[in-house]
């Protein structure tokens, strides 16, 4: 198969692999930030490719901080339904991309990510844990990455960009459905 055909297949698979929500719908409404900071999104890599699956390191290791550092460097990247690269992300594409940069495989769809790893009580969240919310359908339909304390980073909606928010915010706290540790 030629290179053009390969790209076409990748694009079609990305579009079919699901958006942020398990239903494929764009989660709305999301709260809008009160102040917009400068975009710190890096230029897209010339040839992005997912990292191969590898055994996850023990939880509590430095990789959680490395994962959150990568996620934070992508703040300001626009939301793109089905997006999974620095040109634009949906929520699950953002999570998958960030973890792949550290050689950790996570599934593509929110509902599959919600089944990965193991359950973590919110009181025991660590940097790099996944946090899940119900936004457009019952059950997990949105995902973000815990930063520590009360904050998480995520790719919110078609009108948003990768940003940090508080778990305790009225919008998110009422929609929280659980957390998973994949590291």
Provide structural commentary.
The relative contact order is 0.21. The chain has a six-stranded antiparallel beta sheet. Strands 1-2 form a two-stranded antiparallel ribbon. It is 25% helix and 17% strand. It contains five helices and eight strands. The protein has helices spanning 3-16, 63-73, 91-100, 110-115, 170-173, and strands at 84-85, 88-89, 118-119, 130-133, 142-148, 151-154, 163-166, 176-181. Mean pLDDT is 78; it is low at 3-19 and 21-59. It is α+β, with helices and mostly antiparallel strands and 183 residues long.
Present the secondary structure layout:
Layout: H1 3-16, H2 63-73, E1 84-85, E2 88-89, H3 91-100, H4 110-115, E3 118-119, E4 130-133, E5 142-148, E6 151-154, E7 163-166, H5 170-173, E8 176-181
Antiparallel strand pairs: 1-2, 3-8, 4-5, 4-8, 5-6, 6-7
Radius of gyration from CA coordinates:
15 Å
Beta-strand share of residues: 15-25%
Q: What is the second-level CATH architecture?
A: Alpha-Beta Complex
Quaternary structure classification: single chain
Low-confidence segments, ≥5 residues, pLDDT <50?
3-19, 21-59
Main sheet characteristics: 6 strands, antiparallel
CATH superfamily: endopeptidase domain like (from Nostoc punctiforme)
CATH class group: Alpha Beta
Name the features.
alpha+beta; 8 strands; globular; 5 helices; two-stranded antiparallel sheet; disordered N terminus; endopeptidase fold (from Nostoc punctiforme); six-stranded antiparallel β-sheet
């Amino acid at each position: 198969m030629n290179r053009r055909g390969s790209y076409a297949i990748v694009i079609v698979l990305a579009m079919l692999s699901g958006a942020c929500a398990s239903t494929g719908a764009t989660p709305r409404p999301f709260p809008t930030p009160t102040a917009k900071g400068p975009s710190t999104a890096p230029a897209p890599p010339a040839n992005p490719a997912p990292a191969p699956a590898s055994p996850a390191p023990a939880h509590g290791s430095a990789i959680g901080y490395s994962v959150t550092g990568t996620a934070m460097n992508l703040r300001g990247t626009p939301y793109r339904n089905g997006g999974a690269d620095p040109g634009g992300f949906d929520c699950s594409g953002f999570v998958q991309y960030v973890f792949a940069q550290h050689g950790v495989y996570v599934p593509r769809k929110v509902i599959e990510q919600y089944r990965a790893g193991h359950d973590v009580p919110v009181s025991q969240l660590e940097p790099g844990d996944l946090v899940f919310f119900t936004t457009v359908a019952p059950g997990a339909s949105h995902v973000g990455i815990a930063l520590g304390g009360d904050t998480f980073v995520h790719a919110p909606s078609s009108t948003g960009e990768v940003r940090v928010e508080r778990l305790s915010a009225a919008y998110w706290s009422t929609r929280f459905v659980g957390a998973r540790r994949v590291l």
